[in-house]
Each structure stands twice: as structure tokens, then as C-alpha cells.
Amino acid sequence: MTGSAPGFTSDTVSVNYVQPALEIINLPTSPTASSTNTDFVVRVGVAAANNVQLQQIFPRRAGAPALTVTVTNSQPTVAEIDQNGGVNGAQSQTAAIAAGQSNTPNNTAGGLEFDPLSAGSTVVTATIPGFITTTNGSKTVTVQ
């Protein structure tokens, strides 16, 4: 990148761009079928070198449009993803990461909940177009 202005010496600097990444946090990995819904969030930032988790969390810049996060659950008989308050259970839900925020809402309007239904395993995966889904962006949950 080069900056210049009349009366000043131009200067050049390198700018590194890295693809943004996401991960899921606070998702239980072994609830019971009778467990209450658990709030969880998807957050964004820069992935660590191994793409297992985020190395650094970054909020959306001011004025940026919200990011739409899609969270899917692989086994409809084992669990569903609910919107906050345990409503609208489905295998796929969306949530937004607003400008100035680094994650989806937690335990409030627009948030996400994991709702265990019966024993078995399911995979919960979060995606945002153009983002790396780290290893922690896809989690296996075994409902007891």
C-alpha cells in the first residue's frame, strides 16, 4: 500500500490479509437427553496456524453489515438447534454477528441453543460464506 500527499514524501508499506475464521464455543459435548437447552455462540477472528481454533478474536468493524452465521445439526433424531428461548427448533438456524461484535448473541434474542432430544451422536457445524470453519467450528456432540 502506498500513501502520498502533496508536500510529503510517499511511503509504501506491506499489508497482510488473512482469511477470517470462525469457531463454536460453549457447546456441550456430552449432555443427557433430559438436559435443558444450552446456549452457545459462534465467534469470529483469525485462525491459529493449525486451524483448530481462533488465535485472535476480532469484532466486526463499525458500520459493517452483520454477518449471517448458519449452524446445522446432522442428526434430527438426536438434537435440534433452537433460537433463544427454545423456540423454532430445526436442523439449521441462522444468527447474526452485528457490527462491533465478535460473536452471535448469547442467551438473548437472536441467540442459539442446543436442544438434546434422544441418545446418539450428532455433528454441529457453523459456516459463514468466505470464512474458514476451524476444527472447533464443527463439534461432535454425544447425547447420553
Which key features would you list for this structure?
single chain, 144 residues, mainly beta, Immunoglobulin-like, seven-stranded mixed sheet, four-stranded antiparallel sheet, 13 strands, elongated
- Proportion of residues in β-strands: over 45%
How far the N terminus sits from the C terminus, by CA atoms, comes to 55 Å
- Anisotropy-based shape: elongated
Q: What is the CATH C level class, in words?
A: Mainly Beta
Gyration radius over CA: 19 Å
Class from helix and strand fractions: mainly beta
The largest pleated sheet is described as: 7 strands, mixed
Number of DSSP helices? 0
Please tell me the total number of domains: 1
Task: Spell out the CATH superfamily.
Answer: CalX-beta domain
In percent, how helical is the residue content? under 10%
Low-confidence region ranges: none
Topology-level CATH name: Immunoglobulin-like
The helix-strand sequence is EEEEEEEEEEEEE
Mean pLDDT: 96
Going by CATH, the architecture would be Sandwich
Query: How many beta-strand segments?
Result: 13
Could you give the topology of this structure?
Blueprint: E1 2-3, E2 11-12, E3 21-25, E4 38-47, E5 54-57, E6 67-73, E7 79-83, E8 87-90, E9 92-97, E10 112-116, E11 120-127, E12 132-133, E13 138-143
Parallel strand pairs: 3-12
Antiparallel strand pairs: 1-2, 3-4, 4-5, 4-10, 6-9, 6-11, 7-8, 7-10, 11-13
Tell me what you see in this structure:
With 144 residues, the protein is an all-beta fold. The chain has a single domain, classed as CalX-beta domain (Immunoglobulin-like, Sandwich), CATH 2.60.40. It has strands at residues 2-3, 11-12, 21-25, 38-47, 54-57, 67-73, 79-83, 87-90, 92-97, 112-116, 120-127, 132-133, 138-143. Strands 3, 4, 5, 7, 8, 10 and 12 form a seven-stranded mixed beta sheet that branches.
